[in-house]
Amino acid sequence: MVRAAVLPAVGSPLEIADIELPDPGPGQVRVELAAAGVCHSDLSLTNGTMRVPVPAVLGHEGAGTVVSVGEGVTHVAPGDGVVLNWAPSCGACHACALGEVWLCANALTGAGDIHARRASDGSDLHPGLNVAAFAEETVVAANCVLPVPDGVPLTDAALLGCAVLTGYGAVHHSARVREGETVAVYGVGGVGLATLQAARIAGASKIVAVDVSPEKEALARAAGATDYVVASETTAREIRGLTDKQGVDVAVECVGRAVTIRTAWESTRRGGRTTVVGIGGKDQQVTFNALEIFHWGRTLSGCVYGNCDPAEDLPVLAEHIRAGRLDLSTLVTERIALDGIPAAFDNMVAGKGGRALVVF
Known about the structure:
This protein is of the alpha/beta class. 26% of the residues lie in helices and 26% in strands. The protein has helices spanning 40-47, 94-97, 154-157, 163-174, 190-201, 217-223, 235-241, 258-266, 290-296, 310-322, 341-349; strands at residues 2-7, 15-20, 28-38, 56-57, 61-69, 81-84, 116-118, 124-125, 137-141, 145-147, 182-186, 206-211, 227-230, 248-253, 268-276, 299-302, 332-336, 355-359. The longest helix has 13 residues, at 310-322.
């Protein structure tokens, strides 16, 4: 038996429970978790913003050590350190054929599988976003694990599974920030902090962090922000004031709220680019009029998983880590146990801190 954080139903509080995991079958891998990040997407699963079959073991950003492998698994072996990949590409759908593996139509089909059973009553449990990382151990499909790159501590590697790939990809793949450009990042949580570092790595000349909390300024500056703006009705005007009244070249929205998306768009220059990373609900409606779309010539785009191919991007991130350009420790503001996840969710809702990391 292993301990895990279980979501009994949408809208219900998490429960820390003993579960029974099966041995890995053909094409599966059993992993002992070293760490798992508490991401806003996990919170979105609890409140129904994102929907997967429940009851489920949550957690999708994690890393650990391979315990055993099933028949046919050859790319990892017992004792290997691995990063969990919650959105593996099938390689066969239309998006994969186009090389857009982050949009794979079949990436989350595993979320409907039976992952484990409650030890108390034998009831079925699903694997949240495929990998069920909020547990001492998990069993996943072989394509949900990637070897931890050399030189990356196993606990830190958990952050590569979502926050860092998403933030890095938003800057380098979606917005395609060029050296010397100016950037505004909305939301200084785990993904926002990774985005700030990615903008610094890209050579942005000015990096403006925006958040509702004044207390996050030190975190933002440590990650690479050159300026800090406390979110208000005048945010877009303040950012234009920091950029010779032009607006930034690029804005990255990591919140998922209509008002923040609209403000991010307004804070870019004429012809600027806005990338939306935050996951909002269906009730978050963003409106534009036809004349302003024509006049400003701005681009607004969505961004899934940083538009990344983890197999290709993890080695790149590892090189930045080894060279000292990417510091994963600046993302983590709290190290907790499994039973600390509900409080971490509360802090997220209250806008406190960066990434909480469950350490096993």
